[in-house]
Amino acid sequence: MPVAADLGYFTGAGVKVKVVPFPTGAAALEALVGGAVDVANGGDVPTAAAALKNTRLRIVADGSRWDGGRFVARKSAGVNSIADLAGRRIAVPLGSSAHYFATKFLSQAGFAASAINSQLIQTGPGEIPSAIANHDVDVVAVFQPELAKAVDELHGDSVELQGSPKYNQHSMYLTNENTLATKKLELSKFLGAIRRADGPLSAQEPPAVSAVARAMKLDERLITGVLREFVFRTDLGPDLPADLADRAHWAQALGRIPADAVIPDYRSIIAPASLQGAQ
Q: What is the pTM of this model?
């Protein structure tokens, strides 16, 4: 969104947009449910859970994909592989995409569920870089750009560990039924501007990098590296419903959503019309 705003794409599309920052996708979705915003950007993990609580949410686009989820550990702590994480305290924002890939990668490495749950320490995204830099923990699991900030804070004393298969994160744009019904044209114009920003972001064009750096209050050097990890292609792929169901089943297995909750057919909350009407 910062690129579409700063490069004049929203203005060019004839839509007025006020960008409101939130620390996490979950917080943005809460604002959407509460009526504080018309559109929110959220990852697949919080979106899958939010849709269970509020059936009026609608996904109108999938803005980017990221398969770079990984642990960052302090090399000097003797960590060289995921197996070395046994018994280590791992800072992670619980209920987030990082929580998801952390449990998946540890499970793939043979860690017991009880051990995983005891190792993961709730830590806000903004606190992650300082947590590992200050030796509060040896390992962190977080999304971008905090991941890049954590690596930068370690000044070369970092090792990055990724499981297989990788975790492919979706970053979606959501609205609610009321906005979808009353602001159809505005939503299409909004998504058209977002889609137009895909090119400059994919190419890491300097104006796009500067726009993201300003919005995130980070150095352009860090942002350039972060952007290289993402696929910016605003669409609605066929894999999205199954991936959302997978995230919901994961959350249910951990007790983060009720055991008796019925996992929906996520195809029912995907509303493609606004994206199809985007110019």
A: 0.93
